[in-house]
Amino acid sequence: MKKKTEQISLFFCDFDAKGIYKINCAMKYFEKARFEVADEIGIYDYIKPDEGERVTFPVIRVSSKYLNPIQFENRNVLTETSLDIPDGGILCFHHRMIQNGEVMIETVVETVIVSDRHGVLFKIGDELTKKIWEYIDE
After folding, report:
1. What is the three-class DSSP state of 2?
2. Which of 15, 41, 78, 111 could connect to 98 by a Cys-Cys bridge, CB 3.0–4.6 Å?
3. Higher confidence at residue 41 or residue 50?
């Protein structure tokens, strides 16, 4: 399974007064990775909106587990993102934040592809499903 990884150094402002990382701050890194994966797959090539209509990727559900605290003394972490096969129109992104080889945070972000004008789901067709399979199996 293909995983997108990025080595990052967390910001000072992302830690509380005791030097523990605030889990909600991880979402900015996970959101960046989510859109980068969508761009790598080329989702826009498979979704054909009407003229003047935009495609959006709203998050419908997030679940996170803070497995181990990230300490300020070692702000360097690896982010890892993978994608599940869409089921019922839902794209499921799995994110992990890893420090010194140990998983610190696990987050699952479920998103859909929606028309901004009509507020309706775009169908994830066979071609896009095939492209996602190819991406996952790289």
Report:
1. coil
2. 78
3. 41
For the chain, the farthest-separated pair of C-alpha atoms sits apart, in whole angstroms, at 51
Query: Residue with structure tokens 């993102």?
Result: 81
At 79, list the tokens: 């982010």
Pairing assessment for the beta strands 76-87 and 59-66 based on DSSP bridges: unpaired
**Whole-angstrom Cα distance, residue 82 to residue 59?**
16
pLDDT single digits (tens) 101-134: 999 999 999 988 887 776 677 777 788 888 888 8
- Torsion sign (Cα): 30, 36, 38, 41: negative
DSSP secondary structure string, 71-133? BTT--EEEEEEEEEEEETTEEEEEEEEEETTEEEEEEEEEE--EETTT--BPP--HHHHHHHH
pTM for the model stands at 0.86
Which token pair is 132? Answer: 């996602």
CB 7 within 8 A of CB 78: yes
> What is the amino acid identity at position 82?
S
- Specify the DSSP class assigned to residue 7: E
**57 exposure class (CB count in 10 Å sphere: 0-12, 13-18, 19+):** middle
Is the pLDDT at 87 greater than 70? The verdict is no
